[in-house]
Design goal:
Bound molecules: NADP nicotinamide-adenine-dinucleotide phosphate
Structural class: alpha/beta
Strand content: 25-35%
């Protein structure tokens, strides 16, 4: 049956603000795909911290109101636009972006942001690929220009981006250090590719990392909470080391002198500044990981769509991450 005229469950945001602005509705019209677009029945949707910044209205990119959040969905193709050649009804897919929002039973995505989901990954895992893995890949290769054999510290390795970074770095021949804030998180970091794991709540964990790096320091730091860690990161780096700022929730004082003798770099990353060529390259590398088996998203807490407001509170406030937070529909 064509989508036109059908209603669906979806989250709608009519004003920017606190998590309560995420309204669960049951009478949202199912959208119809344009010529180069795909209509997807959503099975799962990734919950990303950026969804909360956009909802609060504090992010650089603001959607027109009302809107439905969510970019990282997995599901089955329901209908394709008349110029779509790469997909057909029933295909298992995931997306790196949506046009009508992923916190919904159905979503529309432009053909170029839809990817086939390999059989070996579940729909839950499909919703955990896009922002986490593409960000981790971009940070490590496009921004840090990491090389096999280097020591990479994933500072905040137990969440969505961190677990992805552990798997990518291990598969590419890095020496991988990861941090987490709970015993369960530390175990998961080790099981997902880290050679060593450190608890970022321990007072002396920085010294332990320095010791594990043989006193020489680490080459690359992928930083999930730079407003807390950047000053210490600069001290952990080896000569020519790079800190990539992935996450930041405030300001921090650093001494720029800490970058001088070691000629170290602080580099920001923004996934959505990737060029088309960079998306294509990352997708090819990540496909290699799906097919050969090293790319295995780790799913953490699961929520029904009705609990969207609670999920937005939890992703910011809860500590002790255990992988990727998702909605299951
Ligand atoms: P997440 O799943 O909520 O994970 C957050 C991670 O931060 C967990 O591993 C958590 O560890 C860790 N953490 C908590 N306290 C820490 C500390 N003091 N030092 C180091 N790490 C700490 O979030 P995510 O999806 O992985 O995203 C991580 C950050 O990157 C967010 O701020 C997000 O907005 C940002 N991000 C940026 C981009 C970009 O393009 N720049 C793209 C994606 C994500 P425990 O819970 O175990 O303590």
């Amino acid at each position: 049956m064509a989508a036109a005229g059908r209603l669906m469950r979806a989250i709608r945001v009519a004003e920017f603000g606190k998590p309560e602005v995420l309204k669960f509705l049951t009478d949202v019209p199912v959208p119809s795909p344009g010529d180069h677009q795909v209509l997807i029945r959503v099975h799962a949707c990734g919950i990303n911290p950026v969804d909360t910044y956009i909802r609060a209205g504090v992010y650089a990119r603001k959607p027109n109101l009302p809107y439905t959040p969510g970019s990282d969905i997995s599901g089955t193709v329901e209908e394709v636009g008349k110029n779509v050649a790469g997909f057909k009804k029933g295909d298992r897919v995931f997306t790196t972006s949506t046009i009508t929002g992923g916190y919904a039973e159905y979503t529309i995505a432009s053909e170029e942001t839809v990817y086939q989901l390999p059989e070996q990954l579940s729909f839950r895992q499909g919703a955990a690929i896009s922002v986490p893995y593409f960000t981790a890949y971009r940070a490590l290769f496009h921004k840090a220009h990491g090389k096999p054999g280097e020591v990479v510290l994933i500072h905040g390795a137990s969440g969505g981006v961190g677990i992805a970074a552990c798997q990518i770095a291990r598969a590419h021949g890095f020496k991988v250090f990861g941090t987490a804030g709970s015993p369960e998180g530390l175990n998961l970091v080790l099981q997902n590719g880290a050679h060593k794991a450190f608890n970022h709540r321990d007072q002396d964990y920085m010294e332990k990392i320095q010791e594990a790096a043989g006193g020489e320091g680490v080459n690359v730091i992928l930083e999930m909470l730079s407003n807390v860690n950047l000053s210490n990161d600069l001290k952990l780096l080896t000569s020519g080391g790079r800190v990539v700022i992935i996450g930041c929730r405030g300001s921090i004082e650093i001494n720029p002198r800490d970058t001088m003798a070691k000629e170290s770099s602080i580099i920001g990353v923004s996934l959505f500044s990737s060029t088309k060529e960079e998306w294509r390259e990352a997708a090819a590398a990540l496909y290699g990981g799906m097919e050969s088996g090293w790319l295995k998203p780790l799913i953490g807490p699961e929520y029904p769509l009705e609990k969207a407001a609670q999920a937005h509170v939890d992703i910011i406030q809860n500590s002790g991450a255990t992988g990727k937070m998702i909605f299951v529909l």
